[in-house]
Design goal:
alpha+beta; Beta-Lactamase; Alpha-Beta Plaits; 5-stranded mixed beta sheet; 10 helices; 27% strand
Length: 298
């Protein structure tokens, strides 16, 4: 028996699940124990990127790890071994905890991917709809249903890691509703809340698959957008401004509108999450000083 066939036979007869992803996070190997533990066959999993693999790993706080803090992705970036407990979705719909051991695979001195070895951590299972509900509460704003600050910060960390590893450009937008305190004083906080809700609905209906827009706090919103080229940032910011300006609320036979001052910036090699948010925020204040209801791109 050839050495490769022997190794494959051994791996396929382990009690632990084993799978391998390449640097693009595409799953290229899925052993028989992985099939037995998760219910998904190799045919259903191999060829998918791990963030689209149907497993939808989350952590104990309900964070969706496949898009916000994937330990496999982190190991591909820094080459560090990781051991964690995560919650995976079984094909039948329930979630259960697994213990994962992740380590890099190197070829010619470069990281070529990562291997995850996992085993069921306990017999405890959780109904998927309950877990999804708790995840939604933890990661979304109660009023607007948009992603909240925690979700945005996690996604921003992910995008920075992706940019540093794969040079995939992105932009960060910071927006503030103009004179919102006066609006609340004039029409009441219930109407003010309705404005924020309607803006949230407009934003959710117009966000692309690989982007994220959420409520940072109060009347502040943050957007994180993938780019093909830097010039797209101005178009994105202007579209955001127009979405807000064209969202209205009906009250006392009046159609009420608000505007937003918008700042946007493109990620740079030296950026951190804090520096990106600060620069986008400063651009937003430049828009305020310029007369509000406008955009600033720097």
């Amino acid at each position: 028996m050839k050495t490769e066939e022997l190794y494959l036979d051994i791996i396929n007869n382990l009690c632990d699940g084993v799978y391998f992803v390449d640097t693009e996070r595409t799953i290229v190997f899925w052993n028989k124990a992985a099939e037995a533990i998760t219910g998904y066959s190799a045919e259903e999993i191999i060829g998918r990127q791990c963030q689209n693999s149907l497993l939808n790993h989350i952590d104990a706080n309900g964070r969706p790890l496949c898009t916000l803090g994937c330990p496999l992705f982190a190991t591909i970036i820094d080459g560090e071994q990781r051991k964690e407990t995560v919650y995976v979705r079984h094909k039948k719909g329930h979630r259960f905890p697994i213990r994962v051991n992740i380590f890099p695979v190197c070829e010619d001195g470069k990281i070529a991917g990562a291997i995850e070895v996992f085993t069921q951590n306990s017999p405890i299972v959780y109904e998927d709809n309950l877990v999804e509900q708790l995840t939604g509460i933890a990661m979304h704003d109660a009023l607007t249903k948009l992603p909240n600050r925690r979700y945005l910060e996690s996604f921003l960390d992910y995008k920075i890691n992706e940019y540093q590893r794969f040079d995939r450009p992105f932009a960060v937008l910071f927006a503030d509703i103009d004179s919102f305190g006066k609006f609340n004083n004039d029409y009441g906080h219930d109407i003010g809340d309705l404005v924020l809700i309607n803006i949230g609905e407009s934003l959710m209906c117009n966000v692309r698959k690989n982007d994220l827009v959420g409520r940072w706090g109060g009347e502040e919103f943050v957007g994180i957008y993938s780019l093909n080229q830097s010039s797209e940032a101005a178009v994105i910011a202007e579209k955001f401004r127009l979405l807000v300006a064209n969202t209205d609320v009906q009250a006392d036979n009046l159609s009420l509108h608000v505007s937003a001052s918008v700042g946007i910036t493109v990620a740079r090699a030296s950026d951190t999450a804090a520096s990106l948010i600060e620069r986008a925020d400063q651009n937003m204040y430049t828009s305020k000083k310029a007369g509000k209801n406008c955009i600033t791109v720097k």
